[in-house]
Amino acid sequence: MDEFELIQNYFNWPLIDPTVELGIGDDAAIFNLDTGYQLVTTTDTLSEGVHFFKDDSPENVAYKSLAVNLSDIAAMGAIAKWFTLAITLPKVDEIWLKKFSESLKETSSKYNVSLIGGDTTRGSLNITITMMGVVEKSKAIKRSGANNGDNIYISGEIGDAALCLKKINEGERPDKAEMVKLNRPIPRLDLGYALNGVASSCIDISDGLEQDLSHIMKASKVGAIIDVQKLPLSQSVVKYIEGNNDWSVPLCGGDDYELCFTAPKNFNSKIINIAKSCKIRITKIGVISDSKNLKIKGYDGHGESYKHF
Amino acid sequence: MDEFELIQNYFNWPLIDPTVELGIGDDAAIFNLDTGYQLVTTTDTLSEGVHFFKDDSPENVAYKSLAVNLSDIAAMGAIAKWFTLAITLPKVDEIWLKKFSESLKETSSKYNVSLIGGDTTRGSLNITITMMGVVEKSKAIKRSGANNGDNIYISGEIGDAALCLKKINEGERPDKAEMVKLNRPIPRLDLGYALNGVASSCIDISDGLEQDLSHIMKASKVGAIIDVQKLPLSQSVVKYIEGNNDWSVPLCGGDDYELCFTAPKNFNSKIINIAKSCKIRITKIGVISDSKNLKIKGYDGHGESYKHF
Q: What is the C-alpha radius of gyration for chain B, rounded to an integer number of angstroms?
């Protein structure tokens, strides 16, 4: 099978997006932006042995490759639209490719995004997705908008993905529900979009709350005070912390892809309504300060967030 | 050095593009499209050991990573504008990174494109660039527009990059000028843009003329007749063919990134003027036929264009 058959067989499904004039099969794709919108773009790579295990299922790898990019679009309060896939494969394994392709198609259909281009090359397994989205002009939620006195919120629960990874690395076998937390993070697109015009800043928690909140602080030139007792945690994470007195799992563990965002205090009731309409838990974990430091009540600081090198 | 310092030190130079509202440093970049334009996007990966040698200079690797993507935008008759860089690195080698970064910056400045986002990860050296560009509405040159009777043209000269690669693989040492042809292909952006409204179809020759022209034929549902005696060749390639009776170098050799395009017969004088204004050699190598086959006069068909797997 040559590259063109491979693309035809596995990555060239029909698109129903009217904004796409030309998808896969030319030197480049052609697509249209509606008036009044800006473009938003992000790229994330997943490498075997770094971001996923060698024996992880192709379905999970495809899902997660797309989800982490969708999560970045969510964090901007934008609408995800189009993506390209650059996949480096050690060999043509048709069974693997079929499963990967079906999961990618299913996930892209679920989140209404169109695969419009790509490249397949030979080498160590490496998947780079570049996701493009749209946002109403001047409406994107940047990291730089947090103000002194704003509340700090996070969506869902954090620490489960890191706890699952910790178990695997220590030779334990996490249960199915724990594996789902690591392998199938849910991009919070509905929430991100609903926060448009409400949140003053937003980031997705990919490298750990402590590090990701610090990015908001740095970009906004503010500090933050959060309280570990307020963190939204699953029963597994609570049990782990009780047993090990180790808060680094929810504070420094990445891979949950929940949103961490700030909003003015008087928007608290709006946030409660958004939580209801998006059917998602939203928890206030602290406030933005003018100190430029991150103060974490109840934590003595022994953890370390994810380092890429 | 962590990922954020790495990006700050090597990939976050000031942008002067007024269409970019937010570049590197948030979850996603934000940029604007002028009214009346469509978006064009392409992605290409270069992997060490496949697309370049382990000892190739970081300057050349950066240049070529960008050039191959620019070439795809050129083949659409579009204007290149913004790009993302996903780079997987085995380790942080500051000397390598500095050279790579300087070359990328210099090349992006030369071709007026802005680096607006990216991702750095650890693993085997792998560079994926996703390039976005703009084209006036309905003006992109697709592969599918060639008609029976159209002339077929190519820009520049072909076969030099393949000959250089052949010499390296056979243990010979190509001279400096030959290495430049392999390592520094020139994206034909001016030409692509000038062909907008003139060419009926276009592709860049990345995998070999025979294979790339076949893509035009397939997309346009036509055939083609070309003549090896008309191919624009350098003295080195002519000499090689005379010595080896091997036409596969210019016919099946990739990596030249010249444009292969078609245009109605009565546009021939326009093409001659475009060649003059773009200061580039343009050669008519054949005509589009209604046969759906590729007939190559003077070639018995022993070569094979580049296979990705």
A: 20
pLDDT digits (tens, 9 = 90+) for A262-302: 999 999 999 999 999 999 999 999 999 999 899 999 887 65
**CA distance to A74, B122, B206, per residue, from A6 (Å):** 31, 27, 18
d(CA A152, CA A72): 18
Provide the b/e sequence for B147-178 (b: ≥16 CB within 10 Å): eeebbbbbbbbbbbbbbbbbbeeeeeebeeeb
What dihedral do alpha carbons B198, B203, B206, B212 form, nearest 10°? -130
Which residues of chain B neighbour A38 with C-beta distances below 8 Å?
21, 30-32
Q: Are A26 and B43 in contact (CB under 8 A)?
A: no
pLDDT, tens digit, 9 for 90 and up, residues A53-107: 888 999 999 999 999 999 999 999 999 999 999 999 999 999 999 999 999 999 9
Burial letters B269-298, b for 16+ CB under 10 A, else e: ebbeebbeebebebbbbbbbbeeeebebee
Opening angle at CA A207, ends A188 and B132, nearest 5:
65
Give dist(CA B111, CA A157) in Å, integer: 46
CATH number of the domain residue B63 falls in:
3.30.1330.10
Query: The tokens of A293 are what?
Result: 């430091």
Q: Taking the model in full, what pTM does it have?
A: 0.93
Dist CA B17 CA B112 (whole Å)? 8
Of B96, B111, B136, at which residue does a domain stop? Answer: B136
Residues of the domain holding A121: 3-136
3-state helix, strand, coil in chain B (%, to 5): 35, 25, 35
CB atoms B32 and A51 under 8 Å: no
Which residue from B142, B152, B151, B254 is spatially nearest to B192, judged by alpha carbons?
Answer: B142
Q: Which residues of B touch A41 (CB under 8 A)?
A: 28-29, 31, 82, 84, 116-117, 130, 132
Among A53-62, A121-130, A247-256, B186-195, the range of highest mean pLDDT: B186-195
User: Which of A112, A136, A160 is a domain's end point?
Assistant: A136
User: A50 and B121: CB-CB below 8 Å?
Assistant: yes
Domain for residue B303, yes or no?
A: no
One domain for residues B107 and B153? no
> Are B88 and A219 inside 8 Å of each other by CB?
no
Is residue B132 located within the same domain as residue B167?
no
Determine the distance in angstroms separating the CA of B183 from the nearest CA of chain A, rounded to an integer: 19
Both A197 and A131 in one domain: the answer is no
Q: What does R_g of chain A's alpha carbons equal in angstroms?
A: 20
B305 — pLDDT class (breaks 50, 70, 90): low
Residues in a beta bridge with A166: none
Complex ipTM, two decimals?
A: 0.91
What is the tally of structural domains in chain A? 2
Could you give the count of Cα atoms lying within 13 Å of A44 in the half-sphere of its Cβ? 25
The lowest-confidence range among A145-154, B12-21, B260-269 is B12-21
CB A65 within 8 A of CB A48: no
Instruction: Indicate if B97 and B177 belong to the same structural domain.
Output: no
